[in-house]
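[[Local backbone shapes]]
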Amino acid sequence: MPKLFLRVLSDATLLEDGEGYDIRVAWMVTENDGEVRGLGVTDQRGLADVADPNVDWLKDPDNTVVFVPSHFILKVACEVPGRSTMQIRRALPFAVEEYVATDIESMHIAHAGIRAGTPVQCNIIAREQIENWLACFASAGVKVGHMIAESELLPTDERCACLLFEEGQVLVAHQDQAAVIDRDTLGFALGGLDIDRVVALGDTPTDLEMSHSESKLTVDAVTFDESGLLGYLADRFRLMLPHINLLQGEYQAERVKSAHSARWQAVGALAAVWVLVAFVGMIVQGWWAESEAERLEAESFTFYQSLFPRESQPVSVDQLRRRMASKLGQTAVGGERSAFIGLMGEMAQVLSAADSVTSVSYAEQRRELNMEVMLSNYDQIDSLKERLAANGVIMDTTNAEQEGTKVRSRIRVRYAES
């Protein structure tokens, strides 16, 4: 995808007639492979000509990148108290306030990723500055997706600093620090850095300037092609180097939604509806199961009372189960569990509402329950067997045959320990 790269060269000042902005900006359009299609330096009117509204790729903010000279940016790294990302983010303005001379509310703080116990890398810029640039670009029909301080893209590490020479000044970048200084103070700046190598862009330091360093410095001089510094920064940006995008928070660009993302959003919305329906269904099912359990419990007590009206009524389901076991002459299996009552209870848990029981018999000596059930299909036989086995119940099928839309099956169930 082609990209539009811009480098602001001045403030964006509203004209007296309010019909535009006074600004100088370097621009460059590159092809997919990085080949330069066109470049130059222009004002707001010329920028509007570059940003042709009929070009589709310019409608996506991700295809427009703005580089900001570091003298507009205050770059700091500070320790911020807090145990969570949210706490650190809230405390960040108070932590960086000591680094700025103006009201912190008038400054925009863009930061890198936040991790507890690690210094937070921040780029601070005046809100008025960034708002004027964005307003100027918007009036020219430019949708900006990335706004990056130049120091973010310069090569630097623990033992290496980068020097960017431009119009009598030098940007000195080293690790998480960057500052623009006058050329005549470069020697003192190099002497204060614990480095052994410098990368020089646009010019090279003199022997006198390097002599201030206690270490013998090696210099890697980088020469620009016809695209100049803007082309160099664009190449560094394409390397996908980690950087802080100034367009964070309220200034974050609105991304264009692709057709694929729109379809996935529709799928996500439909999935959310189904999840909601399933959740409501689970609530309804739980309520129905609880109601059925209460109804069956009440019917059990009523049935016991009708059989034994002269006896005191049981006060709990467990007591009711033990009394029924005693009345039926069943001994306990596995503690409090009666073979007949227990096996009936196990079958009640695995049979669904669509199943039906046509006959039940119980063999006392073998403690074996014989049942004839109507099931939905043959696969359900195996399912019942597996579910009962998980509860320590063995099921044997003596016969199974299709009968209309149902399967009539004769089964024997018993406890594994019997």
Remarks:
- Residues 330-337 have pLDDT under 50 and may be disordered.
- The chain is about 35% helix and 30% strand.
- The first strand starts at residue 3 and ends at 8.
- The CA atoms of residues 362 and 369 lie 5 Å apart.
